[in-house]
Amino acid sequence: MIPVEGHKNLYRDEKSGAIINNDSAGYAQYMRLKNEKKKQREEIDQIKTDIAEIKFLLQEMLNGSKRD
Asked: Can you give the pTM of this predicted structure?
């Protein structure tokens, strides 16, 4: 592998020409942040679902009291 000039963690594969990042700590941090964002997105989606359900139940309660 050939080191990429000006980048200590990047190397060029001699056969394919691909750039390879050899920074495992940086990659681990990237994956941790990615997983945290995914978890936050799932939590937000769950909150949206819960709010929609509460809204529906409140509308049902209001509509039910109007029928009486």
From this structure: 0.63
